[in-house]
Every structure is written in C-alpha cells, then in structure tokens.
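Protein entry
_____________
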Amino acid sequence: MSTPERLGAKLDQLLAGLQRDKRLPSIAGAVLRGGEIAWESAVGMADVDGGLEATPDTQYRVGSITKTFTAAAIMQLRDAGKLDLEDTLDMHVEGAAHRPTIRRLLSHASGLQRETHDDSWLTLRFAPPDELLETLAKAEMVLPSGARFHYSNLAFALLGIVVERVSGMPYMDYVRERLFEPVGLTRLSFEPEPPAATGYVRQPYADGVWNAVHVETGAWASAGQLWGTVGDLCRWGAFLADPDEAVLAKKSAEEMRTVQVIAEHERWLVGYGLGLILRRDGERILAGHTGSMPGFIAFLFASPAEKVTAALLTNESQAVIGELGLSLVRETVEEWPVAPEAWRVGEPPPADVVPLLGLWFIEASQVVFSWRDGKLEARSPDDADWEPPAIFERESDDRWRTVSGPEHGEALRIIRGDDGTVERLVWAGYPVTREPGPWRAPN
C-alpha cells in the first residue's frame, strides 16, 4: 500500500470511529497537503428523513469560520488605505454608541457583550444592520476595552457593517467578489446550495435525533452565516497560511496569524489573532477557526510551517470534533510530510549592501548580517534553529526598518565616516560595531 493510500485508510478509520462513537448523523473531513487535497471523506446521513448520504461535496453550516472572511475583508480594506486598525468604530459607522478600535473588534478584545443585545437567541430573530445600530446603546461593555479576550459575535456583526460602509458594497457581495471568486471557492455560500445537510440534535437517551432550529442571521451574517464544504474550507485555510498576493498581502495574513490576546489563561494553548484562533498542539502552531450553529459544528485549522490544512464538518449541535481535527494534521505530517523547498542560488546583494554583511558585535555579542532571498537579515549564532531572523526593508540609503523577527518595528541606521565607508550601525538604539568591546562614544 502506498503512503497516500495508507494515510487515507488511517484517516478514514478515525473519521468513521468518531461518527460511530459520538453518534453523529454525519461527518465530513478533508486534508489539504502542499496545495492539493490529499484526502476527503464523509460518513453518515446528511438528511436522515430524505435519505441523503453525506459526501465531501455536501455543504454544512460553518458558523464562526465566517469571521475569518470578515477579518480578511477588513485587512484588504486596510491595505487599500481605506481604514486603519487603530480607527475607532465611529470613524466608519457614524453615531456608533460604542467606539472600540477595529483591532480590538477583530481580536475579541473590545469588551462588548458576547451576543447581540436584542435577545436574538430567545426570539430567534436577528435584527438587520440598521436596527442593530439604532439600538447599539443597549449593548453592554462587559469588560473594559482591551482588558482581556472576550468572544463577541456582536463585534463581528459590527465589523460586517464596517466592510459595507467602507467598501460601498453589501457585505455578502464584497465577500463573494473579493474573496470567494479570486480564491476559487465555488462551494462556499451564504445560503445552502444542494447537496446540503440538515442540522440535528442527537437525543441523549435514544438512538434518534431532533431537527435543529434554522436561523437567518441578519446583521450577524458576518459572524456566522456561511455554508461550505470541507474541500473549500481547506482551500481557504491554506490561502490564509500562504495567500495569493493579488488577493491578500502575505504580510497581512501574517498579521492575522499573530497573537493579539491569549484566549485561555490556564495552559496558554489558545490565542486569538485578527479573526483567527491560534492553537498550540505540542510544538506545532495552527491557525484557523471553529464554528457552531444550531445543528452544526465546524473545524478548520492549518499548520503553515508544514503546509497541511484540515477541515471537519458535522450536522450535530453538540459534537466535539477538535481532537479529531488535530489528529488529521498530526497523522498527515507524520505519515506524509511535505518535503522542504530546495535551496536555490539567489541574486547577489546590491553593491551598497555588501559592506553591511558579515559579523558584527553588540558589545561582545555576535550578530551576523546576511542577504537571503533578496532580503537583509540578522541573527545571532546562538539563536536556536526555530528562532526567526530579524528581517529588514530599506527606507532610504542609510536607513532600514525591521519588519519581522527580533526588534520588529525598530530602525537600523548606517553611520558612515567622512570617506563614506560604514563605521557602525545603530539598531533599535544600540551601537553595532565590527569589533567586540565595551561601548564608547565616537571620537
């Protein structure tokens, strides 16, 4: 049996075992490896009364995975210069009764209450955007803005309104045109498109199910309205790990995957970025989201470093599927890892960069500046293999900016002598010299 066949059989067994043990009407799963779907399968009934068996092409509600699309839309608008993450809500939604920053809304650090303030889960009526805004003063700030992580569907309802106001397009149209179409997500939609699953709640003391309530989300659509398939979710997760620059800047995707707040404070296994859950599994860091709507549970996580993405969808309200999702990633990486990219000879550094390369010292601590993949970088010989280098971008002839890694955001200045030669560097305010020794004021 070949590696893909052996892996597929193992993942099939895991999927079928969970469906049986947890008594799920159906469950679908997929793994994308190195840009291609490596495995997808489904077990059980998508529609019990209709006799519709689940397949990998069956749509399920994906719930809060919708938030990842809202966040990507916000980042696109930021990159286009139409908003800033430090803008307050009222700068784009005139008269908004609460004014957290867009960054805090994206990272669930706004302090706003969890659900919309109109008791929508009691009435099963979700207000449209205009009504939500008119009554926003009734919403509570349950924590000071920025105090800590507090999950808020209301925050993402408001972000969907920001997308509309800033882009001048209805939210759903924006997501379809600017995200679904360019990424090639043909089986993601805001309304179910056949074949689609029916949502259920399993009966606790009998082998039966109840039909779950169906809700339309109104202003809350940008927090949880989407339907999709496991294959398209995997493609979206892989995109967020390594996006097409024509759709979303890689730097912006990296920002989305950067921890803004710790989401659980006991073991620090879960953080939240900008619209993305960040989950630690051993030494592995995964980025994605989970989702829950009446009758449905969803899981989507990618390991960007290992180029593996896993998705699970089920039509049962209380299903616990996260451990299976993590196992899909683990098993794929262990059984069939993606080979590292081959080293290739690169372009030579620019002439004025050559004098910056090589060994430097901060007092007696070594720092090596190199030209790698067309970028200036610096690292210490004492750094562990997993520690990233500092990477710089040029701002002017003698000034660079640290854009990632140690001292992110700080300036690197080149100090020249009267003859134009490089005498020293100043990085993050510290002198960097060619020879080791205590710092001395220049003569």
The first strand starts at residue 26 and ends at 33. The CA atoms of residues 7 and 13 lie 10 Å apart. Residues 354-432 form one domain. The chain has two domains: 3-335, 354-432.
